[in-house]
Amino acid sequence: MKIKLHLLCIPLVFLMIFTGQIAYYAIILTSLLWHEAGHLLMAMLCGVSVKSCVITPYGGEIEFENPAAVPATSLLWIALGGPIATILGIGLAFFMPELLATKLINVQLVLLVINVIPIIPLDGGRIFLACLYLFNPSVRAFEYYYWLSLIIAFILFMITLCYLPQSIFIAILCLFIWLQVLKEWNYRKYRLAFEKYVMKRLT
């Protein structure tokens, strides 16, 4: 399995250095790695082979060796692995020195809140997607869901712009998420064809 750092993380590192927050970014990166470890551990427990893992500013993107062979229940548990790890991380932070614990808890809470938003490519979106596999395996439902993800991501980005410059980090994060959703939307026909194939296999 290959673990990579997304290119967007590089300018964020320079931003933190120039603003004197490199230690804060170290906490963010550690939180992201801890969060992603939860996904990877859950994948291992579910017996799913992981091809690669890309660490992004909001978490990570996991690519499976054989996506079509992954059961919907495993997809659900793997998606839940990250938020569960983050919640455990918040709990462990209470046993750390107060100065470190405060910053760590704040980062973990932001990471958790962002990731449970029910849009692709966030964990909340993948949890919702897995539930669609299980309870409403309709290609049309998937298409509506991509529309909803695109709209919500755009609204979140516009809201963060109202609070600049304090919200610069969150604004960049929301822009990145919106671009990821836009990429999913542009390839939706191929994605939906794949979903249709998977749903036939599941049924």
Automatic annotation (TrEMBL):
Cofactor or coenzyme needed: Zn(2+)
Residue stretches in coiled coil: none
Keywords attached to this entry: Hydrolase, Membrane, Metalloprotease, Protease, Transmembrane, Transmembrane helix, Zinc
Statement: the UniProt record of this protein carries the keyword Membrane: yes
Keyword Metal-binding: no
Transmembrane spans: 12-34, 75-97, 109-135, 147-179
Family according to the record: Belongs to the peptidase M50B family.
Protein name per its UniProtKB record: Stage IV sporulation protein FB
Organism: Lysinibacillus zambalensis
Biological classification of the source: Bacteria, Bacillati, Bacillota, Bacilli, Bacillales
